[in-house]
Amino acid sequence: MTIIEIIRDSLKNRRPRIIDNPGAGQIHASVLIPLFSENGQCNVLFTKRTDRVEHHKGQISFPGGAVDKEDSSIEETALREAYEEIGLLKEDVEILGRIDDALTVVSDFIVHPFVGQIPYPYNFQLSPHEVAGIISMPLYIFTDKTAGYEKDFVEVDGFAYHGTNYQYEGNIVWGATARIMENFVQIIEKNKLA
Fold first, then answer.
1. Dihedral through CA 51, CA 148, CA 184, CA 41, nearest 10?
2. Is 171 helix (H, G, I), strand (E, B) or coil?
3. CA separation for the pair 84, 81 (Å, rounded)
4. What pLDDT score does 191 carry?
5. Cα→Cα distances 99→48, 70, 104, 114, Å
6. Alpha-helical runs (H) found in 32-174
């Protein structure tokens, strides 16, 4: 079984943990966790946000954003945002499944993450307002506790963050993005052990 087949199998019959907030005021958002293969290795694609965006300036994140009332579903939101931010056409994404919802602590979003396989190489078209660049990291950085995984503390732009973070080639994945990746890896590993 390939890692993509394991991921697809892990997500196909699983019910994600849903966070609901009737009247609580949180903003619903969706993100796409884009996976691609290169030289036989599974990689995760991230965006580096510009300093011009409203939330999470300069951070490493997934393509995604707030649900618009015109979106037909939260999956549609993730695909629309991926197109707007990096030029990824929705017909070029194979949705493998959905993982558990996550909360952002400071910006008060409920994030609905979808996992998708994308072709690579790809002619990405970056939104200059939202995306400063694209970063890819091997999936093993998140699955191998001896690779890039850090559990305790990291300082990012003068801010002390206590929690899971991953470091690879000078890039730091932290905050909600790190928690989403941690959840994703736990789901895959649980299925591999079952």
1. 100
2. strand
3. 5
4. 72
5. 22, 23, 15, 6
6. 74-86, 140-143
Q: Which domains, and CATH codes, for the chain?
A: 3-15+26-141 (3.90.79.10)
Please tell me the predicted confidence (pLDDT) of residue 149: 60
Question: What is the pLDDT, as a whole number, of residue 107?
Answer: 77
Residue type, 164: T
User: 97-134 burial, b for 16+ CB within 10 Å, e for fewer?
Assistant: bbbbbbebeeeebbbbbbbbbbeeebebebbeebbbeb
Q: What distance, in Å, lies between the first and last C-alpha atoms of the chain?
A: 14
- The C-alpha atoms of residue 19 and residue 159 are separated, in whole angstroms, by 28
Question: Is the full-model pTM beyond 0.90?
Answer: yes
- Residues with Cβ within 8 Å of residue 145, at least 6 apart in sequence: none
> What is the mean pLDDT, run by run of 10 residues, along the chain of 194 residues?
92 90 81 96 95 69 95 98 98 98 86 98 96 95 74 66 84 92 92 62
